[in-house]
Amino acid sequence: MQIPENLKYTEDHEWIRVEDDMAFIGITEYAQGELGDIVFVEVETVGETLAKGESFGTIEAVKTVSDMFMPVGGEIVAFNETLGSAPELLNKDPYGEGWVISIRIDNPEELDDLLSAEDYGNLIGA
Q1: Domains plus CATH for the chain?
Q2: For 80-121, where are the E strands, in sequence order?
Q3: What would the 3-class secondary structure string for 56-91 be?
Q4: Which among 113, 38, 93 is positioned nearest to 68, based on CA atoms?
Q5: In what order do the strands lie in the sheet containing 38-42?
Q6: pTM as predicted
Q7: What is the Rg, in whole angstroms, of the alpha carbon atoms belonging to the chain?
Q8: Cβ–Cβ < 8 Å for 53, 70
Q9: How does pLDDT run across 94-116, given as a tens digit for each residue?
Q10: Considering only CA atoms, which of 101, 122, 108, 98 is closest in space to residue 3?
């Protein structure tokens, strides 16, 4: 199972990758494996500013629907529109083409509270 070192993680199985003043958020390989075949992704919060821990959207899989939560607070700038027609990208490439949203981070210090790749691996028993 992949747990890229360049990302930060949450206990809710989201990842965040910071690039300059923007950040990309998605779900982990572990999360997509637990969900199974993903059939729909809904994000109706683009343009909103949400706090750390708030739900920014949902993922529908064959067996369940799951909320996705903000790893840090910020303004949601974009939704990965490709997921609208190809939600299976979350299963195939969760750390690349399967990113879900991009945000402008409100408080970069919140990143310090997230898990490292090693800590996340320990959490999921990898």
Answers
A1: 25-108 (2.40.50.100)
A2: 101-105
A3: EEEEEECCCEEEEECCCCEEEEEECCHHHHCCCHHH
A4: 38
A5: 38-42, 55-61, 65-69
A6: 0.95
A7: 13
A8: yes
A9: 999 999 999 999 999 999 999 99
A10: 122
